[in-house]
EF-hand domain-containing protein 1
Amino acid sequence: QGIELNPPEKMALDPYTELRKQPLRKYVTPSDFDQLKQFLTFDKQVLRFYAIWDDTDSMYGECRTYIIHYYLMDDTVEIREVHERNDGRDPFPLLMNRQRMPKVLVENA
């Protein structure tokens, strides 16, 4: 049509698209800990601890005995109550199911 235009200009830089072009940052350092190796080396190995819960300071308190199992293959813990004959308690053997324990305990506010 005979209209002369200016030469093409460079496109303005968009900070968002420039940020998207950069590789994602990884904040997790790679660990040399191998869970499969731990599972295969410590399979069927369990640490057993005997514990007593002494609640004799309360009004109807008593001493209860427990067995704590620590499974080395996956770092889980299980707490079982030791029942005796005619102790007057329901036979619920587990105080805590087998599960992972938190490394950092949070205090109740």
